[in-house]
């Protein structure tokens, strides 16, 4: 990097500070080399979301040449086991979110919750009823929810194994075009869970409410 051929590109300030007008994404690999002595570049990203390269290999090699760093050996992408573990964790977190949303619905005396997820669209995510606390819980899955429902259609059957859930189903989105139906890239998950509140308890609460009002 500091060889004679690069002298015209080196303009130190304050005596020993240098500014390099280079690609910021590729510079990540340069910094990793100086931190760890290796360049974490994968020959094949596989199916993992966490091990994809930021720049093409040819661009990286150009940056390595500029900074006079040896070209790295090919690093194999993580095995599918890592991907499966990540997918399992994502699915478990999604199910936990659904149960929390259902509890929020119960707290407002709703027994049905519907969530609509749209492929490649965050803005079109919808949840009914629109309870603010439930929306906050579900929003982190507004983008990934569609992929989860599409890849795990058996999720509804799994949820119905919970004794508190009486029914659960996934519906595809359709719209009518002339005389035919067109399938939309949207999936709606509906969960039905009875409140199971004893009528005597409701009557008692209602009686107490009237008593308080009468006392005022």
From TrEMBL:
**GO BP: any one term:** protein homooligomerization
* Sequence intervals crossing the membrane: none
Superkingdom of origin organism: Eukaryota
**Potassium channel tetramerisation-type BTB domain residues:** 13-70
Which Pfam family, giving just one, matches this sequence?
BTB_2
Q: What is this protein called?
A: 9612_t:CDS:1
